[in-house]
Amino acid sequence: MTAQAIEVFAPAKINLTLHVTGQRADGYHLLDSLVMFADVGDRVTVARASEMSLRVTGPMAAGVPDDARNLCWKAAEAFGEPVAITLDKHLPAAAGIGGGSSDAAAVLRGMEQLFGRPSGVHLPDLGADVPVCMLAHAARMQGIGEEVLPLDMAPFHAVLVNPGVEVSTPAVFRVLGCKDNAPMTPMAETGMPLAALNWLASQRNDLQPPAIMVKPVIAEVLDALAALKGARLARMSGSGATCFALFDTRAAADGAAITLSSAHPEWWVRPATLR
Ligand code: C5P
Fold first, then answer.
1. Phi, psi of 259 (to 5 degrees)
2. Which atom in ligand 1 lies closest to the alpha carbon of residue 27?
3. Which residues touch 189 (CB under 8 Å, ≥6 apart)?
């Protein structure tokens, strides 16, 4: 019998908005965020094994732990079966696009298929972004990340940029001045690209100003994105440093990505469609 291996795509998670609306007694922050998923991401393969193992490959593998420190490993342990995991890393780490959380969710989805049972894992224990990454569909995320409401959103065409600096999420939250900000205003016709875009422009990422204080290069990335031909909106995702700009068409996003890549060959630049 050949060992069955399941391959799962782990898409980049993009916070199109991220409002910080309060702080709990335990220090965690209350969020109100519109999350979508990109067609760029990592690839996770899981196979039955007699003991746990993790192999990290791919262009972004450098520095990614291949042991119990990796969230993939923790997810498999929480599921309660030993598996051989291969993590093909394409997304930058500590980048505000949920790489580790999406990888962990992909491990759980793969293991659910492999072992034919639900994971039973309390997802927020693995990280605030893991519940929404398990859904891997456009959603409004509230609470500290554990409240996830699927949304019917028109797709967006984007350019994603990471300038190659890692950002510590707790460090950004420490610098955040006001923790009681207004939640998102009611979403207007999210199925209509233009209405959704206009609504998005009036929302915020409250972590963007503190992240710029921690890593000033983020301001340079946002300026470069906003200056691209056809860019409708430029904003940071999560706690950074990855930022995105939105375009009317995929062709416009593809062209803008080529322009930005040649101006900044040292940056990670990817066109993407968000769903
Ligand atoms: O859950 P995750 O490991 O992604 O969170 C990383 C850190 O970000 C937490 O340790 C906490 O300092 C901060 N955080 C927060 N409020 C949230 C999510 C994360 O303060 N809702």
1. -60, -50
2. 20
3. 195, 196
Best of 167, 169, 239 for a ligand 1 pocket test (most atoms within 8 Å of beta carbon): 169
Alpha helices in 39-98 (DSSP H): 71-79
Residues labelled catalytic: 13, 129
DSSP string, 218-229: HHHHHHHHHTST
> Under a CB-based contact definition with an 8 Å cutoff, are residues 202 and 184 in contact?
no
How many A from CA of 239 to the centre of ligand 1?
Answer: 10
**CB 88 less than 6 A from any atom of ligand 1:** no
pLDDT digits (tens, 9 = 90+) for 175-224: 999 999 999 999 877 777 778 899 999 999 999 999 999 999 999 999 99
This prediction's pTM: 0.96
13-37 confidence digits (pLDDT tens): 999 999 999 999 999 999 999 999 9
- E strand segments, 16-68: 19-23, 29-48, 53-57
Residue nearest atom 3 of ligand 1, based on CA coordinates: 127
